């Protein structure tokens, strides 16, 4: 056995570069754009393409932390309920006389608290799986939202609040701009910081990273709290777009978000995947939805398409991983010979 | 020492504890509203819990293999919708054939999921999530976005839910048969034990010659078949089939399993426990409105109870393991 150093920067190879999942997603987006513009002559211009984002970007904010959570081999299915609870609390505190600015702060706090509670339970009871914990809190959070508002809706927000839903900065929708800024921020956090490397380490081998001094518990707490905060941001945009809120808003958002993350090539076995893939997947599903709307295909048909797309993408990723294992074992055997 | 004895006792008779909790809950509800423990209300409650029991038993096996099936609500809706459309087109169809059709459609859905999990190797939570979307969409597509309402269904079909077999409501009767079958299957057959072996340690189970893929296929097909059956019963009971029938019901089913002591980490779960877990949810569903708890509080209360049950479970388990370790040292 010869000693072998592992470079911390992999050598650039065109083959590996072109075989990335992200190209597949970009190809999908291009196909969707071609089909969309052949359906409607009004699709292919800047205003239409950027305005369409206002209809699907709200839930996409949760995708960022969900990528980290799934890389850590965890899952959070309570985010949809967190959106509902944060939104309901925001509307209720506003209507109880709190200024809107403070109500937004309260909304963010509620989101952070919900996420923190998930993380706390997971860290305190390590033997519990994230599925159980977040399933319970999913029922709990939405239950609290129902307790607060019952069958009522709550709204009457000041007019400036709708800016979150429909506002522009220059020609660009505000939500798109914020999404891009946060996307860059989260991509840097995941790929360029120690924190991000530790997230990958936890996903590859939690025990080993714990022994190597990674503060696993603290990182899990931070990431789950981030998920709550992002859910609150989603709540703000969603509420602003709709103008009022009910306890049953954002139903099944968690599943849409998980679908986007899985489609983005984040391995469900943990430790693999890139932020960029998930971000591209957001636009794949978003523009697909928009395109189906253009040809008057009911939203339910979209469910079939998303479901099939999700399974197909995971299948391809699985095959790809299997292929990689083969090539790596080959190169190993070569080394042994030499 | 006394404390550790108590813990061992509680952990051994977990089901007894759950039963005790249900009884205490029933007494409290009865104290507040005497209409609770009447024959009419109890049989109503059984009828309402029957479908949940059927699904929870299937889900137990899936959870025991370390899997999860989020698609059962959609499978239920799809097979219910197909059956409802068939009986409204052919009103002369015998109810038995209708049930058979539902089971076949459900099993087909289950086979697809089983293939994805065993052959393709997709994580169950992701595969069933994708299929949940697909089946739900297909339900809308098959039904053309419309409902199938009570007047379109023949009386014989609606009679499935209201008729009696041997003096027991048909829904309850079917649930009892399935319960007995599961009790025997899980405890007394080789395949049943293989499911548990695979769940508690997949690697050693495979090494000892258990065909893992076959077990996965079996478990998911069984779950699909039960969802199909439940779909027919559901549509017959509510006398309407919609695109969003039983949307989100998979979570209630999983909650019943968790309350019943099934571990989502695999290998652990008792038929009796699952039955009691389903009953607990049934008592809450039925009892809370009777004592004037607003229906909007129900979900929150259920959430708290599930969370407390889960945490209580792990605390007990931790203490038992600690005690076992202590004993080993001595």
UniProtKB/TrEMBL annotation, chain A:
Main location as per UniProt: membrane
UniProt name for this protein: Autoinducer 2 import system permease protein LsrD
Subcellular localization, as worded in the UniProt entry: Cell membrane
Gene Ontology molecular function, alphabetical: transmembrane transporter activity
Bilayer-crossing regions: 21-44, 56-72, 79-96, 102-123, 130-149, 169-190, 219-240, 276-295, 301-321
Domain of life: Bacteria
GO cellular component, one term: plasma membrane
Organism, scientific name: Gracilibacillus oryzae
Keywords, alphabetical: Cell inner membrane, Cell membrane, Membrane, Transmembrane, Transmembrane helix, Transport
Membrane topology according to the record: Multi-pass membrane protein
Lineage: Bacteria, Bacillati, Bacillota, Bacilli, Bacillales
């Amino acid at each position: 056995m010869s000693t072998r150093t592992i470079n911390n920067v992999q050598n650039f190879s065109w083959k590996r570069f072109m075989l990335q999942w992200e190209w597949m997603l970009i190809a999908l987006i291009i196909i969707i754009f071609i089909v969309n513009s052949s359906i409607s002559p009004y699709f292919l211009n800047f205003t239409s393409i950027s305005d369409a984002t206002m209809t699907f970007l709200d839930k996409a904010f949760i995708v960022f932390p969900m990528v980290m959570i799934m890389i850590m081999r965890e899952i959070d299915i309570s985010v949809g309920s967190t959106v509902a609870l944060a939104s309901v609390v925001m509307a209720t505190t506003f209507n109880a006389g709190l200024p809107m600015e403070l109500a937004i702060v309260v909304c963010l706090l509620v989101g952070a608290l919900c996420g923190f509670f998930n993380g706390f339970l997971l860290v305190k009871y390590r033997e519990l799986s994230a599925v159980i914990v977040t399933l319970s809190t999913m029922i709990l959070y939405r239950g609290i939202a129902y307790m607060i508002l019952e069958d009522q809706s709550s709204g009457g927000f000041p007019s400036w609040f709708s800016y979150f839903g429909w506002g522009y900065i220059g020609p660009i929708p505000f939500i798109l701009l914020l999404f891009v800024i946060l996307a860059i921020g989260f991509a840097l956090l995941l790929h360029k910081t120690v924190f991000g490397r530790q997230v990958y380490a936890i996903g590859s081998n939690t025990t080993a990273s714990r022994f190597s001094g990674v503060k696993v518990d603290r990182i899990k707490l931070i990431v789950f709290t981030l998920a709550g905060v992002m859910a609150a941001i989603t709540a703000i945009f969603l509420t602003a777009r709709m103008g009022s809120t009910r306890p049953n808003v954002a139903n099944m958002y968690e599943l849409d978000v998980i679908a986007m993350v899985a489609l983005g090539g984040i391995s469900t076995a943990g430790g693999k995947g890139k932020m960029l893939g998930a971000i591209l997947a957001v636009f794949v599903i978003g523009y697909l939805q928009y395109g189906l709307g253009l040809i008057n295909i009911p939203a339910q048909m979209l469910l079939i398409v998303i479901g099939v797309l999700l399974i197909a993408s995971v299948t391809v990723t699985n095959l790809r991983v299997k292929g990689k294992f083969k090539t790596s074992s080959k190169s190993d055997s070569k080394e042994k010979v030499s | 020492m006394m404390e550790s004895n108590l813990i061992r006792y509680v952990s051994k008779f977990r089901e007894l504890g759950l039963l005790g909790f249900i009884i205490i809950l029933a007494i409290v509800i009865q104290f507040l509203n005497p209409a609770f423990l009447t024959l009419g209300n109890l049989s109503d409650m059984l009828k309402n819990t029957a479908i949940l029991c059927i699904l929870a038993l299937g889900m137990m096996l899936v959870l025991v293999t370390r899997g999860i099936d989020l698609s059962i609500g959609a499978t239920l809706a799809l097979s219910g919708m197909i059956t409802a459309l068939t009986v409204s087109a052919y009103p002369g169809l015998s109810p038995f054939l209708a049930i058979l059709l539902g089971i076949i459609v459900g099993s087909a859905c289950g086979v697809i999921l089983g293939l994805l999990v065993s052959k393709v190797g997709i994580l169950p939570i992701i595969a069933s999530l994708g299929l949940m979307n697909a089946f739900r969409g297909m339900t809308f597509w098959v039904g053309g976005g419309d409902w199938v309402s009570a007047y379109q269904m023949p009386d014989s079909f609606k009679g499935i839910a209201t008729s009696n077999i041997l003096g027991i409501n048909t829904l309850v009767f079917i649930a009892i048969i399935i319960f007995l079958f599961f009790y025997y299957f899980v405890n007394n057959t080789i395949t049943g034990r293989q499911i548990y072996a695979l769940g508690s340690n997949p690697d050693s189970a495979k090494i000892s010659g258990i065909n893992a893929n076959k077990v996965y296929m079996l478990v998911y097909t069984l779950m699909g078949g039960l969802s199909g059956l439940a779909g027919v019963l559901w549509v017959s009971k509510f006398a309407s089939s919609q695109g969003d029938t039983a949307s989100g019901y998979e979570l209630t089913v999983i909650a019943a399993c968790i309350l019943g002591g099934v571990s989502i980490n695999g290998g652990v779960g008792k038929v009796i426990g699952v039955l009691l877990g389903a009953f607990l949810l049934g008592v809450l569903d039925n009892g809370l409105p009777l004592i004037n708890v607003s229906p909007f509080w129900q979900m929150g209360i259920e959430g708290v109870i599930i969370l407390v049950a889960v945490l209580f479970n792990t605390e007990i388990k931790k203490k038992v393991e600690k005690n076992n370790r202590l004993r080993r040292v001595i």
